[in-house]
Design a protein that fits this description.
globular; binds zinc ion; alpha+beta; 107 residues; 3 helices; 5 strands; two-stranded antiparallel sheet; three-stranded antiparallel β-sheet
């Protein structure tokens, strides 16, 4: 299990979709979903071009069976190929973390 310093905690984002985050021991913030995927894969690093998608569309449902690792390009296609915007329908990309608390996300 990869150690965390804080969390999991809910996003302060006012969107209707609840989002969960953690701060890793090294001080880097990321989504709980990415942290769970990192534990599942026994790695402490998931490249930014890989996103963790919520299969059932519920961003608070971080059960491992609901998570899917996708290339960011495939993630884009999966949501809305014509009008995809980061963070609108999925909580899984690292960009949201940057918006959330200004931390640099390298995981
Ligand atoms: Zn997604």
């Amino acid at each position: 299990m990869i150690a965390i310093k804080n969390g999991p905690y809910k996003s302060k984002n006012s969107s209707s979709n609840e989002r969960w985050f953690v701060v890793l021991d090294n001080g880097i913030g990321t989504t709980r979903a990415r942290w769970i995927m990192m534990n599942f894969l026994h790695t402490n690093y998931i490249p930014r071009r890989l996103h963790v998608h919520h299969i059932n569309g519920v961003p608070s449902d971080d059960r491992i069976e609901n998570l899917e690792l996708l290339l960011n390009s495939d993630h884009t296609k999966k949501h809305n190929p014509k009008n995809y915007r980061y963070g609108v329908s999925c909580s899984d990309d690292p960009i949201i973390n940057l918006i959330y608390d200004g931390r640099k996300d390298n995981v």
